[in-house]
Amino acid sequence: MYPSIITETDAAVGIITLNRTERHNALDERLIGELTTALLEMEADPAIQVIVLSAAGKSFCVGADIGWLRKAASHSFEENLRDARYFAHLLATLNELSKPTIARIQGPAYGAGIGLIAACDIALATYDAEFAFTEVRHGVVPSVISPYILAAIGPRYGRRYMLSAERFSAAEGYRIGLLHEIVPDEEQLDDAIGEIIDSLLRNSQGAQSECKALIHSVAARPIDESVIERTAQHGANLLLYGEGDKDIGTIADD
Question: What is the pLDDT of residue 244?
Answer without folding.
Answer: 46
